[in-house]
User: Fold these one by one.
Assistant:
Number 1:
Amino acid sequence: MSGGFRLAAGGRIDRSRPLRFTFDGRSFRGFAGDTLASALIAEGVHLVGRSFKYHRPRGIVSAGADEPNALVGVGADEAHYTPNLRATQVELHDGLVAESQNRWPSLSFDVGAVNDLAAPLLPAGFYYKTFMWPQRAWTSFYEPKIRAAAGLGRAPGAADADRYTQHFAHCEVLVIGSGPAGLAAALAAAETGVRVILCDEQPEFGGSLLAEREAVIDGLPAADWAAAAVAELETRDNVTLLTRTTAFGYFPHNLIGLAERVTDHLGVRDPRLPRERLWQVRAAEVVIAAGAIERPIVFPENDRPGVMLADAARTYSNRYAAKPGERAVVFTAGDAGYRAALDLAAAGVTIAAIADLRPAATGALPARARAAGIDVRTATTVTGTRGRLRVSQAHLAAIKPDGSVGAAEAVPCDLVLMAGGATPSVHLFSQSRGKLGWNEALKAYVPESSVERERSAGACRGVYELGAVLADGYDKGSAAAKAAGATTAAASRSFAAKALDAGSDGFIGAAPHGRNPAFAKAFVDWQNDVTAKDIKLATREGFRSIEHIKRYTTTGMATDQGKTSNMNALGIVSDALKTPVTAIGLTTFRMPYTPTTFGIFAGHSRGALFDPVRTTPIHGWAAEQGAAFEDVSLWKRAHYFPHAGEDMHAAVARECLAVRRSVGIFDASTLGKIEVVGPDAAEFMNRMYTNAWAKLGVGRLRYGVMLREDGFVTDDGVVGRLAEDRFHVTTTTGGAPRVLQMMEDYLQTEWPDLDVWLTSTTEQWAVIAVQGPNARKVLEPLVEGIDLSPAALPHMSAATGTICGVPTRLFRVSFTGELGFEVNVPADLGRVVWEAIFAAGAPYGITPYGTETMHVLRAEKGYIIVGQETDGTATPDDVGLGWAVGKAKKDFVGKRSLARASMSAPGRKQLVGLLTQDPQVVLEEGAQIVADPAAPVPMPMVGHVTSSYASAVVGRSIALAMVKGGRARIGETLYVPMPGGTIPVTVTEPVFYDPKGERLDG
Amino acid sequence: MLIITCPHCGPRPELEFRYGGEAHIARPADPSTLTDEEWGAFLYQRANPRGLHAERWRHVAGCGRFFNALRDTQSDFFAATYPAGTPRPDTDASGVKESGR
């Protein structure tokens, strides 16, 4: 195997650029322009994998995206490893490292091949039928074992080291595919001056033209004509040309997803370039020129290495100068097999025989084959093959006029070509939700009616003759440009094409073989190891819908999405059920057209860029102090500020006591803030919140509760009235966007007559909470124009002035139960003011505290957190906020719902406190509460724990809970059953510290 | 990804919009006069048609305004978009040709 199958001349490889690569650790040589598959074939290697279920040796079947067998893992290291790549699409580069998959210990000796001997025991639906019992063993034993034995590639062992980017693009005409139809379409559209994008999955434009030996267009060899067409397109700046770019998905409103492989083909990669680029192209019109896929023929043992599609063999020989064998048997259902035979014969391959399923072969191509002395046998089938790791014989037998099959003759060969006819590639058209129609003459589904603005051209709609394909492409290209609004029309242009036309004859279903069907494995779906017998079995077991048969047998469900198998499976079902193909239906063509990396969808959204991160103006200071942070929606919030040697519990206890005994400082900048301004601002607030706002004086604050229209609490926050027509509204940290959206909704759509403006000011204000008995002493020296005395600034009032020379809205407000202030300053100056306050607080031992301490302090006071005590089913009264509902108000959002009987029914869950009988035990938040722990399972549950902490100031654990009829149960003992035992608790008022609120005044 | 024509800004990708449920369900002027059944119907009962559906969208990453749209739920194509507060256009499904064919 030393390159013995490389032709001395011809092909599109660059013999001046030899490349080295390894496959399963063995070193091989190839040339620039090779794919991994063509280089292996040139080295005489056909065995490239083991099959999914039976572990049968498998070879290269195709030369493109339809490859079901030759799946390889590629990558020199785990961080650059990609499994399940089609060797037929992997471009060779120097140093490429590839390995086969699904074999152990080696490709040529695979222990799993015993499955093949056990094949009679592994029919369709085997797993469903067999591994039923015991049920538990399915997840613990059967599934892992089956997955390990029947698998394809393996996941890489390291994180992907590559970069992926994403790109939006717009054009008038997107042309998908650059064979003759696509090139002609692009030429036509480009000429009109509109923006054109032409993409092709291959490294070179030209499609099938690159594999033609004799075809001539406008006097040029086909490949040269393609090069000239591309050169013409390159001169136009309204054309974008994308090679190595797969159109993998057709999304609504003409959005097409393209995956561009930027660096995979390079031995040495430019680190500035991404590995792949996602193009989201919005095209006014799309021309699909996706070509056709050759069908294999379903006959016994059609899966041995060396059995391949006829056009693929022709491509290897003509395009890659790689001879796929020495002696070939061609099994054909149309003239395409003859074309391949003639091309291979020209490359020096002996054609042992052509077996033609048709009773007669009369066209020009069969005539040429006969004239060349090739043994042409019509009405002939192939009944089987021999050979262990490579085909060595094909068994040819005559089909008698009565349909029976005669005695087989063994024909020695190392290559068997299958030419079952062309299947138009309608994947993208179907993804666009277009309707397919059955064409009886072509024995194929072709596009019938469109939904999106697209049109198909050439072989993908069943037009195969080269001249007709070019004309069709040009037509469709100019029509697309016109439909997209091109103001100049494409000049009429005709193409003089001369090529061997293979016609459109073909065969679907399983070829006759006359053997005992129980022992003949005729593969329909190579990748999922589905045979004709499996599909017939499914029909015998009563399956009728093709969608059910697909799932039961798994035909067409592999990564190739049935590109080669769907039509033959349909044919077999049609034959078995004696029902026309059209009555059986068609399975759904799903995206992606070929497997697409996760990386291209993730783009830059990984690691630190996975989600946006919001930080407050004080974040840097907290980080310098060694704060531990927690995520609160997208915000990073300081969770606690540990001293050396402190765990969270110790730090929080220290922070809590510091606030209760002297003063603490807390970054509340994440609070949502909305400025509600306008002559009707008070009326708007009246309608949005439960509270009464009309009488709230300027300079006063009020705690507001917001309901949804269904009457349940959705948000809360302190609101300041800064002027008659101006409210400073605060919301919960996570609720800010939701509240603003809801306010906008009502303002715009229900009450557009109200003259009010809403502005999000969350990011404009830094909010510094200074809380504790010494809070006033800390702030007093820093403020100007604000009297902080209790008389001038009582609890729940606001003042404006300056602090440290910075303008401020200073609120006297407390979420701790202590004397407290919230200093709002412009965000840019937040850290400066914070540091000044911190310095001024030094004599009082001012202590920065985080969100955990904030939670404990408010729980000690029984202040709820919306989303923690409430769960979207709590009314204001349920959580002890009945006082905040303006009873005299005629209407507000949610008021009518509160009037429903069930909203005040007895037995609703109500906010209460819980004290464990053992003060050291801290309940788990979310734990369920029962009245009688001896009740039989399922135990009736009476509530759940919503907040639970160890409270340093109370000296024991405390908890808040929502309990059915809770306020009437105060004093009762309830129980919290936990895995470690049942915890008895006493129901209490939900306020554990300073119930009279005397500390608010310092 | 759909293309949605904001009546104020023009055609934009779906990414810029947020769906807002069925359109033309006005909040009663005085909810207190409604029976529980009537109020329940206002809160929860929504059409789920196969075909044209009048629905609200908000151009949240654009002008921020709510508007209404007639979308064919079978084809996902829009027959019309129109400002909030204006009546539903007299368009049937055959008028759906803003995108597609």
Number 2:
Amino acid sequence: MSTVSTVSTVSTMGLVDVAFWACALVAVAMGVLVFVVDSMARATYALAASFVATGGALLLMQQSYLGVVVVLMMVMEMAVMAVYMVMFMGMNPALMPMSMVHSHRAAIGVAVVTFVALGSGAVLVPWPERRGSPSPDVTEALGTAIMESHMLVMMVVGPVMVATIVVGVLLSSSRTRYDRMGDDLDQPALDPPALERREERR
Amino acid sequence: MTLETVLLVASALLAVGLYGALSQQVVVMVMMGLELMIAGVLLALGGFWWFLSPDPSGQVLLLVVLAAMTVEMATGFAVATLLHRRAGSDMTDMATELHE
């Protein structure tokens, strides 16, 4: 009985290892491809694949909620990026060759030094033993934490997200009511609103 | 899968992202580099959580990093849109008003 369970544990560990290395390889290789491929569309897809693999690695560490959120968020984000490219670059992004870099060698040098420093730290530091064990339902534990003991985090993250929406709209809108009617909104409108202009054109 | 291997992969992601953030000229590509760096941070935090102290507080930290990623992305797109409207360009090298 114990032999069977040992064998099954070993095979499970083996599977997890294989899956982890597959995710790791895809994540890093696709991350490199982002800056190697010569079109922005391909770079976007490569980044999406890299993030899906990162989400997969998180899933292997039992973070079912955060892993799935990473995958969903990044897939949506890459869709937004594709729309963005078509909107602003006015090109067929898949066909446009592109290589726009500066300080290429310095950047490679800094990246290699960073990797060597962090990697040697990861290998050489005597990491402590694991303390405690994960709760049976990790997602439920996270939900309970942000609604009970760590509620402050949720209370801060919420307004930050709202502020981000406001900032995003303000920065990216071309002409707001403050542009038309002054900072106190008490000046006569500088130009007719879009509806009137459309009627004039008719 | 050990903590060391997870951290090595995270370091690789961070280094690749750093290269992109430093070397790319198009704002969107710089943002992709930053995203890769944050992905590395996420993976490293996930590894620390799972291999060292798997209690919910660590996961809350991961959630905060994820939120930071969202904020970075949304604000980055908005700034790139603003740059495009004002200067008609999406290159970092042309956004030098503060330098001049």
